[in-house]
Design brief:
With about 850 residues, the chain is α+β, with helices and mostly antiparallel strands. The chain has 26 helices and 37 strands. The strands form seven sheets. Strands 28, 29, 30, 31, 32, 33, 34, 35, 36 and 37 form a ten-stranded mixed β-sheet that branches. A seven-stranded mixed β-sheet has the order 1-2-4-3-5-9-6. Strands 15-14-17-12-16-13-18 form a seven-stranded antiparallel β-sheet, covered by helices on one side. A hairpin with a 5-residue loop joins strand 1 (about 65-75) and strand 2.
């Protein structure tokens, strides 16, 4: 009752003088207000990173309630920081509070009396994340408001919050993206904001401020840890394991405010308490916003299924993770007129996030003991999680480095991973095989048991199929990490072998040269991802490389097509040193051979041994290219494989001499209408003279017959009635008759069910084509909602979706699955002396889907001069 009385006074007074935050309450005069530090009231303009840091610096110096931890830095070298705010007494005892809370996360090592003592006496721990999307700009402003209230407020309720809670505030999760947005908007604004949605200040330029330096969406990276900001944040998060986590966002300016309960689907691994707490926190937020008559909604659109969000990943780690969405986003500016005529201001947006943040703290205070008890039960029940199997088994396979990367990813998230020290023979079911068989696993195989505290996260990240009762997905519907990494994996009911060794740190993979100093050549297997880095390293140092277009056997092993060969006679004496350096640096085993005569297959003097060109790579960037897809390729080349490329603005392509490049990549983008027929003709001439043009997703679709006409390849949606089977034509007519009689709601439902939200399908690879080198015949690929490619006799179908098969993981309607079956995934269209490569799907999806990347790299390395 006292809490609600405070909220009534707090929120009714706030509207009259926002500058004071809580008029009528008392503040510590030694703690300056943000407006005194910045020289303007929060909401009057956007605060740049320098201003945000300045406010934090002053709060840290002037208040005894706050500590700051710098936990990393962004790609552009801005500090990543966490504010720890509580009473001075709690701060003096903060390490004890933190470590006692961590004891709750492993119930195997905690007695019942200790558990009860911790949940009864420990403060609640609440973590607020602001600004993960840089152009959702109101939340870092709200972070300053919240931090000031907690550092300076001397009213009884603020003191009660500090006495019973530890509040962790990350004021700017994505400083690089926010600074990109803020610098643009502050440079665009005039003396007064223009609320007309048509005004330039409501339309940020490419790539926008949403993403980080490499244009990654950090809110979809929590489980994959591809970005340095995410890795640093997860490492710190795991040192605290808060009970409640709120991720503050913005959505389109026409909307209102969203808070939990979440929409369906919720992942099946979540306990029922997740729904309960969504409703509890939702009621607290509703009461806060109702004081102002601010509209809001719950249980729509934003689900809790995909594990990589700032709400779902914390929930898999015992917290109640929630997304709060305020209307505004990049179009909001300082002020914008909504269709209703209402004026939405930055000040109001920041205020609403401040209100719900404070309401969340008040709700946690009022339910502290219950929240800690449920947090404790989450970890206790995880040890007896019901599942169809007991463990995942992942052999090292042909690329130990890639398997080690997966094990490292799991280890960094607190998942217990073991390795077999002895061979294990047990019943196991290979992913998607549908049957169990007696299987021999060698020593070194990774074994991940569900009998551990992180069983829910293990299940979510590794299971071959994520089950969902609902078919609306805010994001993708499939992501199994072994599948994404292109690994062979198994489920088993076998218990953890007693001899298996638990990883105490990420596994280390080493490489060496076997066979001593070569007299003829060094052989570098292409199956390993790190071999790409070896190739780049050697070519940067002037080493001439060749590759085998067919397999051969020598030195007691089989070398598959794609094997790289460094001939001694083609290089100088530095070759031996460089080869040893590359093997050690990039952890790749390299074999030296002393004769060109092989045991089987082609010899090393065969015409099937071809010289490998150091490709000169160009890639289109800027509008109309998708920033996310360009960013993935940029990151892959720059960080993962250290391959130089030249980024060319699409608008400048007509002025570029393409003869300076061997390969041109067109990432996903809306090229139709942006690249005219004259430029298409110039690209055609360049390809016919030996250029390699690679289009991905809509970049690929632009290269089809009915768009640019560069190839004769058709999309499935391009087919005319005469090109369809009788069954297809009849089915379409039936569907048209149904649609004529559908209500608006029924049409929306039909459209939703017809989409492919991001689903795994089985595909077949032509392993004799250079793009298929290093792959097995059967692979599992990720497919989005775009139309499929129709197989063509004029193109090589390097990778095609398996005939007659539906999706193997995730959602796809039977009708869409039938259209995908036996269609093209990746096609090579020869054109003169060059090639047009059409990749219908994203091969670098969020950079955690790594299993397809070498298809793209094969095209880049092997197609130039391949014929």
């Amino acid at each position: 009752m006292k809490i609600m009385l405070f909220l009534l006074l707090f929120f009714s007074s706030f509207v009259w003088a926002q500058e004071a935050y809580v008029p009528g309450a008392s503040y510590d005069p030694a703690v300056p207000k943000p407006s005194d530090i910045l020289g303007y009231r929060i909401g009057e303009r956007f605060t740049d990173y320098r201003g945000l840091e300045l406010v934090i610096d002053v709060l840290v110096r002037s208040s005894g309630r706050i500590k700051r931890v710098v936990y990393g830095e962004s790609n552009e070298h801005r500090p990543l920081q966490l504010l720890i705010i509580s009473s001075p007494e709690n701060l003096a005892n903060i390490e004890h509070i933190r470590t006692e809370n961590l004891r709750l996360t492993d119930q195997r090592r905690l007695s019942s009396p200790d558990r009860q003592k911790i949940t009864a006496e420990s403060p609640g721990i609440v973590w607020f994340s602001y600004g993960v999307h840089g152009n959702e700009s109101s939340s870092p402003e709200a972070a300053m408001m919240t931090a000031y209230q907690l550092c300076a407020g001397t009213d009884p309720h603020t003191k009660a919050l500090l006495d019973s809670l530890v509040i962790l505030i990350d004021p700017n999760v994505n400083p690089d993206g926010r600074e990109r947005y803020v610098r643009w908007i502050n440079g665009t604004l005039g003396r007064e904001p223009n609320p007309n949605p048509d005004a330039a200040e409501h339309h940020e330029p490419w790539p926008g401020g949403r993403t980080n330096h490499y244009y990654f969406d950090l809110n979809r990276d929590w489980s994959w840890l591809t970005q340095k900001e995410t890795r640093a944040r997860i490492a710190l998060y795991r040192q605290w394991m808060p009970h409640t986590h709120v991720d503050f966002h913005e959505m389109g300016y026409r909307s209102s405010y969203f808070f939990f309960p979440a929409a369906v689907p919720l992942h099946e691994a979540f306990p029922e308490e997740v729904r309960k707490w969504g409703a509890i926190y939702g009621r607290g937020n509703a009461e806060a916003l109702d004081r102002f008559g601010s509209p809001y909604y719950t249980e729509e659109y934003f689900d809790l299924f995909y594990p990589g969000y700032g709400d779902s990943w914390p929930t898999f780690n015992g917290a109640i993770g929630m997304t709060y969405e305020q209307a505004g986003h990049s179009m909001g500016g300082v002020a914008i007129r909504k269709p209703s005529g209402a004026l939405l201001t930055l000040e109001e947006r920041a205020r609403n996030h401040f209100l719900t943040g404070m309401a969340t703290l008040s709700t946690t205070l009022g339910h502290r003991r219950e929240r800690l008890n449920d947090f404790s039960r989450f970890w206790e029940s995880a040890l007896r999680l019901s599942s169809r199997y007991k463990a995942f088994v992942i052999p090292e396979g042909s690329d130990p480095g890639r398997t080690a990367r997966l094990a490292t990813l799991l280890h960094l998230q607190g998942i217990e991973v073991h390795r077999l020290t002895d061979p294990l023979r047990t019943d196991a079911q290979k992913f998607f095989s549908g049957k169990s068989a007696r299987t021999e696993f060698p020593a070194g195989t990774y074994f991940v048991s569900l009998a551990q505290p992180q069983s829910r996260l293990v299940k979510a990240l590794l299971e071959p199929e994520a089950a969902a009762k609902d078919t609306f997905f805010y994001d993708v519907s499939a992501w199994s990490l072994p599948v994404a990494y292109g690994l062979t994996a198994y489920t088993t009911d076998a218990p953890l072998p007693s001899s298996a060794a638990k990883l105490s740190e990420p596994p280390v993979v080493s490489g060496r040269v076997t066979g001593g100093t070569a007299r003829v050549a060094y052989l570098i297997p292409w199956e390993r991802d790190a071999s790409v880095r070896v190739a780049g390293f050697l070519m940067r140092h002037g080493v001439n490389l060749s590759y085998a277009a067919k397999s051969f056997g020598t030195s007691g092993r089989i070398f598959r097509a794609g094997t790289l060969i460094a001939f001694v006679t083609s290089n100088n004496d530095s070759l031996h040193r460089l080869i040893n350096n590359a093997a050690e640096t990039y952890a790749v085993d390299i074999t030296s051979v002393h004769t060109g005569l092989t045991d089987q297959g082609i010899d090393l003097g065969s015409n099937s041994i071809r010289p490998m060109k150091n490709p000169r790579i160009a890639m289109l960037t800027d509008a109309p290219v998708s920033p996310n897809d360009y960013g993935e390729l940029w990151f892959m080349f720059d960080r993962e494989y250290e391959l130089p490329f030249t980024a060319i603005r699409t608008s400048n392509l007509s002025a570029v001499d393409l003869s300076n490049y061997d390969v041109l990549l067109m990432p996903d983008g809306r090229y139709h209408g942006e690249i005219d027929s004259g430029l298409v003709a110039e690209i055609r001439r360049w390809v016919s003279r030996g250029g390699i043009l690679i289009g991905i997703e809509n970049g690929a679709r632009f290269l089809t017959k009915n768009q640019s006409g560069l190839t004769s390849v058709l999309l499935e949606t391009d087919r005319k009635d005469g090109e369809k089977s009788k069954e297809e034509t009849e089915e379409e007519k039936k569907k048209q008759e149904v649609v004529k009689r559908q209500t608006v709601r029924e049409k929306e439902e039909s459209d939703r069910l017809a989409r492919i939200p991001g689903t795994v399908f089985k595909a077949l690879v032509d392993t004799t084509h250079v793009i298929g080198f290093g792959y097995d015949r059967e692979v599992y690929v990720f497919k989005g909602d775009g139309p499929s490619l129709v197989l063509s006799e004029k193109a090589h179908s390097v990778v095609r979706f398996a005939p007659g098969s539906g999706s193997v993981s995730g959602y796809a309607s039977k009708e869409r699955a039938q259209k995908v079956a036996d269609s093209g995934y990746l096609m090579d269209f020869p054109l003169g002396q060059g090639h047009v490569v059409i990749a219908a799907e994203n091969m670098t999806f969020r950079m955690f889907w790594t299993g397809h990347q070498r298809m793209l790299l094969n095209a880049i390395f092997f197609l130039p001069d391949a014929d």
